[in-house]
Amino acid sequence: MTTEGKYTAKDDFSVILEREILQCISQDLRNLLRKAGHKILATVEEIRIRASRPVILQNYNGDWFLYKDGTLSDNCCGDVYIAMQEEIQKTLELMSENSIYAYQDEIKNGFITIKGGHRVGIAGKTVLDTNSVKNIRDVSSLNIRISREIPGCSSGVARHLVYGGKGVRNTLIVSPPQCGKTTMLRDIARFLGDGMASIKFRGVKVGIIDERAELAACFRGVPQNRVGIRTDVLDGCPKQIGIMMLLRSMSPEVIITDEIGNRGDFESIMKAVNSGVKVITSVHGHSLSDIRKRQDISELMQSRVFERYVILSCANGPGTVEEIIDGETLHTLEKRREAPCS
Amino acid sequence: MLLKIAGSLITIISAAMIGYIYSRECSKRPQQLRTLQGLLNMLENEISFMSNVLVSSFERICSGSDDVVTVFFRDTARILREKNGMNASEAWEESIRGNIEQTALNKEDTEILISFGKMLGNSDTEGQIGNIRLALEQLKLQEKKAEEVKAKNAAMYRSLGLLGGIAIVIILL
Predict the structure, then answer these.
(1) C-beta atoms of A98 and B88 within 8 A
(2) Residues A142-193 pLDDT 10s
(3) Which of A26, A279, A309, B140 could form a disulfide with A325 if both were Cys (CB 3.0 to 4.6 A apart)?
(4) Structural domains of chain A sorted by starting position, each given as residue range(s) with its CATH number in brackets
(5) Contact (CB<8Å) A98/B122
(6) What does each C-alpha distance from A332 to A288, A311, B38, B48, B55 come to in angstroms?
């Protein structure tokens, strides 16, 4: 069964913005943001609130300062809106549903995930307990990263990642920060789990290890994003442990995880591949030669684990597919086209 | 004569009843303070063991009770559900100020409750528990005082009612 077409009616982004983000922001700032044109808000990737400094909205064009009259401008002078620390504290309270204690473990790690899967980074004075962070108090900066589902943004690369009715290729997505890596990965999970009729792909069982709660964006355990109907999500679990857990417990056919980095991650990916499970993952980097410099990854590359490399960039906005490379021959299969994700 | 006796009896009985009702009013406050302590104890459990978010904690602790003081929790939960930008302490204060008239609580109790609300939901679990314990201790003291007042006043109102009734009868006779 495939559920294509179900997602064609995209939710109006301004509704999402209102319901999920603005409702968590303290009153004054919320009203100002409402006044600011939806045109820029619709493309915003980050809202950064820093104590005693201007509020900055960021989209792929750069940053925009919020003025006291609700206008946005790309230069900072005169009547910019300065956020107060109390406002930040209050915003954090609203985001944690007035229950900071329930989000303590997340705050310890420096971010919380709010309903809708948006991630809010927190910085301030850390309270240490011997050598681990126990709490962050006197919060001075919030970074609201607006997560955007773009159903269909992986349709351009889909045909390269799968073969036959059920075959999936081990894939590594290489992307600089903020270029739609997570969005792409999420959509890949969705189409793998749902199936895609246009390329005659039946769905497979997908397991997501969502270490930083970004991919599926679980809110109280339930994925907030569409990650496919055959998809299981292990939320907040470190990749090494998570991959082994999923292998044992959920018998996935594909494992998807975001931003591999350390040695342990690579080892557990090898384990998964060796036990016959396909892996789709992502890594920070600008090009293949860029990541080849990193020892751990170059080992993985040499062992020909990945059958496809997808290189992303921001050239035509986030989610531009720069190149798709065959892992075996390192031949380019496809070059940059128009951005499917902007 | 018979009419006079009947009239006096009715007067005495009704006066005694008024006294009785007043004396019962006195026992309301200690009883409400006790209920509040019970609710706060439950809140402590919700926060420390279940790590439930505030709104659902409030709704849960109210679900088993229909005592008048649950109105504070219900109303706070309602305000927070509306999501109009109020944080927990503001919502709590509004709910206390708006509903205190319905209860038998006095000004001192109100102050304790409002200062309890200042910390509501904005700190870690330990902070929340400390805050709840502090409020519990203060409410216990208030309950003790209220019991003393009750012991004094309840007896007074009862005898005042009865004696007042008799006095009226004597004067009218």
Answers:
(1) yes
(2) 999 888 778 888 888 888 888 887 889 999 999 988 788 888 999 999 999 9
(3) A309
(4) 13-145 (3.30.450), 155-335 (3.40.50.300)
(5) yes
(6) 11, 11, 69, 56, 54
